[in-house]
Specification:
The strands form 3 sheets. Strands 3-4-2-5-6-1-7 form a 7-stranded parallel sheet, sandwiched between helices. The protein has helices at residues 12-20, 28-38, 53-64, 81-94, 112-121, 130-138, 155-160, 164-173, 189-198, 229-239, 252-264, 278-290, 300-303, 323-330, 352-361, 377-384, 405-412, 414-417, 443-452; strands at 43-46, 74-77, 103-106, 125-128, 149-152, 179-184, 203-206, 217-223, 245-248, 269-272, 295-298, 313-316, 340-346, 366-367, 390-395, 424-429, 434-439, 462-464. Helix 2 (28-38) runs parallel beside helix 3 (53-64), helix 6 packs parallel to helix 8 and helix 14 (323-330) packs across helix 15. It is of the alpha/beta class. The chain is globular. Helix 14 links the parallel strand 12 (313-316) and strand 13. It is 38% helix and 18% strand. The protein has 3 domains: 6-209, P-loop containing nucleotide triphosphate hydrolases (Rossmann fold); 214-384, 3-Layer(aba) Sandwich (Rossmann fold); 390-468, RRM (RNA recognition motif) domain (Alpha-Beta Plaits), CATH 3.30.70. The structure holds adenosine-5'-diphosphate and magnesium ion.
Length: 469
């Protein structure tokens, strides 16, 4: 019999949200991890990307949080700012029935001052990257004494990115009486060492599905000489209809080149790589999630863990050296029961990177024949081109200005705005900015109306986010 959320003894406020989110039942890792975490045990949890590890630790944290004590009770370390933002978003969503809950994001690339001030006002849960958290601990802006739970999320990735020593320094500052939780998609030797050093009598849980299993994802390979890769990509994009796709490259230079060539042909594409600052990364991701850009070209580090609902195609423009990375990449699609397609460009049947993946997953990857000759490439690209259905508008006010999604809808519709609600897409309210997606033909009108009108009685600046951000 499948475990239910009810049987996990979750508080009614939390149960209600899982229902509202349409979660029929806990994923395997959630069913295994939630009870010991609620009981306060240390835990090491392993399951593949996309299997719901965030809620596996977030629900118990929310269950245990003491709302009346507005002091830091849990700290979550994540490898990248994007992941920290995503985890924070999910905690806020799952915790929306808990009134007064404060969840902070402590990451680099944003002024530390605002974070210090937020900490001094008091918060229940903080999600951060190791570097910034260590800085805040060092300057005593972050007082660790009341922390009861420390979570190391995507622990393997933190090690890969060289955060091991930094994580160690953070752990050293935590109270010795604490719950330590470690989640990872893989459990290499170093994670076992971390567990031994930081945890006490940790419960070990692993989702039974093999880490490499990629059940609902259709996998294809396309053979192409390296210098015809871009042509092959064009054919793949053309051949496989998609609402949104991520194209993974191994190098920043490839990301930039591919993006440039797509854009030159008028195809709606953005790049996500380590050279973008935080503001532009947020902007790119927001545009992508809102559907105002169809293709995202990314490196692993920048694209890792990005959770985009409805992503239906992942292309490996360059296959990674390690097969595990392949599994992580294609796990972006086909999330939570949706189906997805993954296509890898390979040099030929002898490409060791393909055979490595096939060995790891135990499934042969089928060859997708692409016909190269009949149609001229330019024509294919032109067919892919054309504006995306939605445009993204950036508004200079956010949560700090008490702006809520409903206020933005209000400013755009009704007498002042004049737009139909159905022309408005996804709205994201960040701390100091918001994004709203609007049907392309109405974008200019919407910007005008937002600039003329008021939100919460205040004037904000609205701009169309440039497609070449
Ligand atoms: P992981 O950290 O294991 O890579 P995430 O926590 O990011 O995975 O979850 C992947 C997706 O699955 C998210 O979109 C999340 O909202 C969704 N999800 C989580 N738990 C459930 C559930 N019990 N049922 C359906 N979807 C879920
Ligand atoms: Mg995760």
């Amino acid at each position: 019999m499948k475990t239910t959320f009810e049987s996990l003894q979750l508080a009614p406020e939390l149960l209600k949200v899982t229902q509202e989110l349409g979660y029929a039942c806990p994923t395997e890792i959630q069913a295994l991890a939630i009870p010991p975490l609620i009981a306060g045990r240390d835990l090491i949890g392993k399951s593949k990307t996309g299997s719901g590890k965030t809620a596996a630790f977030a629900l118990p944290l929310l269950q245990r949080v003491r709302l009346e004590q507005r002091r830091l009770q849990a700290l979550i370390l994540c490898p990248t700012r994007e992941l920290a933002a995503q985890v924070r978003r999910e905690i806020r969503t799952l915790g929306r029935g808990l009134s007064g809950l404060v969840v902070l994001e402590l990451v680099g690339g944003q002024p530390a001052r605002a974070q210090r001030e937020a900490l001094s006002r008091g918060a229940h849960i903080a999600v951060g990257t190791p570097g910034r958290v260590m800085d805040l601990l060092g300057s005593e802006a972050l007082d660790p004494h009341t922390i009861r739970t420390l979570v190391l999320d995507e622990a393997d990735r933190m090690l890969d990115m060289g955060f091991g020593p930094e994580v160690g320094r953070v752990v050293q500052r935590m109270p010795s009486q604490r719950q330590t939780v470690l989640f990872s998609a893989t459990l290499p030797e170093e994670i076992e060492t971390m567990s031994g050093a930081y945890q006490r009598e940790a419960v070990r849980v692993e989702a039974a599905s093999p880490e490499a299993a990629v059940p609902d994802i259709e996998q294809w390979k396309v053979y192409t000489p390296p210098d015809e890769r871009f042509d092959a990509l064009t054919h793949v994009l053309h051949r496989l209809p998609h609402a949104s796709a991520i194209i993974f490259c191994n190098y920043k230079a490839s990301v930039q080149q591919v993006t440039q060539r797509l854009k030159a042909a008028g195809v709606s594409a953005d790049r996500l790589d380590g050279s973008l600052d935080q503001f532009h990364r947020d902007q790119v991701l927001s545009r992508f999630r809102a559907g105002s850009v169809k293709l995202l070209v990314a490196t692993d580090v920048a694209g890792r863990g990005i959770d985009v609902a409805g992503l239906d195609l992942v292309v490996n423009y360059e296959l990674p050296q390690q097969p595990e990375i392949y599994v992580h990449r294609i796990g972006r699609t086909g999330r939570a029961e949706a189906s997805g397609v993954a296509v890898s460009l390979a040099v030929g049947p002898a490409d060791a990177r393909v055979t490595g993946v096939e060995e790891l997953t135990g499934t042969p990857i089928r060859e997708l024949p692409v016909e190269r000759s009949p149609e001229p490439l330019r024509g294919l690209l032109e067919q892919l081109a054309g504006p995306a259905a939605m445009a993204s508008i950036l508004i200079s006010g956010g949560r700090k200005d008490k702006v809520r999604p409903g206020d933005i809808v209000g400013a755009l519709t009704g007498e002042a705005g004049g737009l139909q609600g159905s022309a408005i897409g996804k709205i994201e309210v960040l701390d100091r900015f918001s994004y709203v997606a609007v049907e392309h033909p109405l974008a200019r009108l919407a910007v005008e109306r937002l600039n003329q009108g008021r939100i919460k009685g205040k004037r904000f600046r609205a701009t169309l986010t440039p497609s070449d951000a």
